[in-house]
Design brief:
Length: 161
């Protein structure tokens, strides 16, 4: 197994229990809001926080996304051809690759990951509000959906395949 796959799997396994807790807590809070008699209102929730800086994690994310794209379009071969074969300067080639890699890491940290986190939060917020709306319109259906979701998450957690 490659290093980037090991790093990404370890990160997601580490954060899976947090995500399951948040999903169960949001279902329980929906039930609490419903039984307390509060009217339905659309809420913006932000469940996923932006990732803190972890060099290995961001290197793995960059390696499997932007770095793989640059390799696929043969950008590094072009860079090698220009600096090593034409100019004969292997050290400059390595330095330019390092600068490009650092730029890709910064792009991933400041632009791409926050954008992805925003999209994930919007999706979770949308699903949360749709579930709340169904709960308020059809209480038996909403309650059974929340209970089924909780049962499914607990069962999946106890019996991973």
């Amino acid at each position: 197994m490659s290093w980037q796959r090991v790093t990404l799997l370890a990160f997601f396994k580490e954060n899976l229990s947090k995500a399951l807790f948040v999903l169960l807590f949001s279902g329980i809070s929906l039930l609490w809001y419903f039984f307390s008699g509060e009217p339905f209102e659309w809420k913006e929730i932000e469940v996923v926080d932006a990732l803190e800086w972890q060099r290995l994690l961001y290197s793995a994310l960059t390696f499997v996304s932007l770095g793989a794209f640059l390799y696929w379009i043969k950008f590094y071969k072009l860079l090698h051809f220009l600096f090593v074969e034409i100019l004969g300067d292997f050290r400059a080639y390595k330095e330019i690759k390092g600068i490009i890699w650092g730029g890709l890491l910064l792009l991933m940290y400041f632009k791409i990951v926050p954008w992805c986190v925003g999209i994930i939060n919007e999706g979770i917020s949308f699903l949360y509000n749709i579930t709340a709306f169904v709960l308020y319109l059809f209480p038996p259906l909403g309650i059974s959906l929340i209970l089924f979701g909780g049962f499914f998450l607990i069962r999946k957690r106890k019996n991973p395949k």
